[in-house]
Amino acid sequence: MVTRRDLTVMAIAIVGTLGVVAAAQDKPAIQGSTVFDWNAMTPTKTDVGYVRNVLRAPTATLDELEMHVTTLNPGLASHAPHQHENEELIIIREGTLEALMNGTWKRVGPGSVVFNASNVLHGIRNVGTTPAVYHVVNWKSKK
């Protein structure tokens, strides 16, 4: 015979199990080792050029790893100078850019790497005559 107490315990167990399952489903999967093929990346038009979104996911050591590739048209900035908590690497593939670094615009070209520290004002603009292409890597971790 099933008692009221038995039904209460079963209900609590079911609700608890469903809560754990729902919480597990809300968390994105941990990113494993992967190859991202340039030819498989679809460019999406933006107001300043194109973006190829590569990844936005947690990893084994990061809350979030975000990577994208921007094609920035000549004479334009990706956006106004700004700052954010996450750190960021920009790796220039093609073109001539200026990067706002510690209050000064620095000219950079193919192969150059820009590191933007946490909460420091930064920006990037295309000062060349051709589109500039650069890879962006952002990461967020617990403090």
Description:
The chain is an alpha+beta fold and 143 residues long. It is 16% helix and 38% strand. It has one domain: Jelly Rolls.
Domain count: 1
Radius of gyration: 22 Å
Morphology call: elongated
For the termini, the CA-CA separation is 54 Å
| CATH-assigned fold name | Jelly Rolls
Q: Order of SSEs, N→C? A: HEEEEEEEEE
Q: Helix/strand-derived class?
A: alpha+beta
What is the spatial order of strands in the main beta sheet?
A: 1-2-3-9-4-7
**Mean pLDDT level:** 89
In the CATH hierarchy, the architecture is Sandwich
How is the secondary structure organized here?
Layout (H helix, E strand, L loop, with lengths): L3 H23 L17 E2 L3 E9 L6 E9 L14 E8 L2 E5 L2 E5 L4 E4 L6 E4 L5 E9 L3
Antiparallel strand pairs: 1-2, 2-3, 3-9, 4-7, 4-9, 5-6, 5-8
Key features of this structure:
single chain, 143 residues, alpha+beta, Jelly Rolls, six-stranded antiparallel beta sheet, three-stranded antiparallel beta sheet, 9 strands, 16% helix, elongated
Gist?
The chain has about 140 residues and is an alpha+beta fold. The protein has one helix spanning about 5-25; strands spanning about 45, 50-55, 65-70, 85-95, 95-100, 105-110, 115, 125, 130-140.
